[in-house]
Amino acid sequence: MTNQILGILFSFIITLIGLPFVIRIAESIGLFVPNNYRRIHTTRVSALGGLVIFLSASVGFILFSDLINFPDYRFIISSGVLMFFLGFYDDLNEVKPELKLLGQFIAVTLLVVFADVRIDFLQHFFSFSTGLWADTVLTILLMITIINAYNFIDGIDMLAALLGVIIMGILGIWFFMAKQYDYSLALFTLSSALLAFMVFNHSPARIFMGDTGTMTIGIIMAVSLIKFDSINDIIEGNIHVNSAPGIAFAFIALITVDLLRVSFYRIYQGNHPFIADKNHIHHLFLRIGVTQNKASIIISSVVFIQIVMSFYLDRFLFSSLIIIIINLMYLLTFYMLIFIKLRAYDKE
Asked: How deeply is 69 buried, as exposed, middle or buried, from its count of CB atoms within 10 A (0-12, 13-18, 19+)?
């Protein structure tokens, strides 16, 4: 527990100290988000917050973890570093979507092949193995989806950071209770860095995390959710859950549904699915007059409720499939209420 506390404090303090320096450096040399139609901010803001988040969380993890008993760290850090540099370059010079996907594919494949970050999907539902190669392909697709879902949700102040704190924090607690202390430390240092980042990222934001942050955090989130499922299979006691895939889905249900919704809508409109617009769930809140901070809190609260509800349903032996369906119905109701409010607001 001491290492976890030290890691949390270290990452929080270093992020809190480091961000003002990055903000001042960005202002002095003009490293700002370019003016384009995607922006909802009128002031010039740097997107280099992910630089401080990644470095403080990584150093905090390395300093206070037992790397000898954590052989996967080499591949996890390597993939994280690859995402970091890809995101960092994209924040400075916009990268084509195809090149981004290629970088994500390489980073994810490294984890799946060498760190055995893999899940047997269909066995959870139909009790048979789909084979190693099918599992590998499905896992890669899932992880790339999670990375981009988290990247896409970073459209207003504080939202991605607050979601990251909730998701990483809850997963960190579970891993700690499952005695997976290195995984819990990695998640705690990251969530504490995000918490410190929110001091500068709440509206009006002084800095964004950028793709440097979202893609790095996204790949760690993907690894953590898959490890949550695989580690759960080998532990016993009160911390074991019966429907791990269903609970894992609850963590990312909203961001994944929103990713798929806007992507299909863009394709329907004849646009590239990775060309940004203002149709995400957070943009809908802004259109009905909700402030950025309030929208971030509402959306994050919905995700928090989904996670807690799914753990609760698991105790009553609901299957993963039923938990997934309940979460989708919950989100459908949420979206319907937003669109009803939006239609009424547009008529006024």
From this structure: exposed
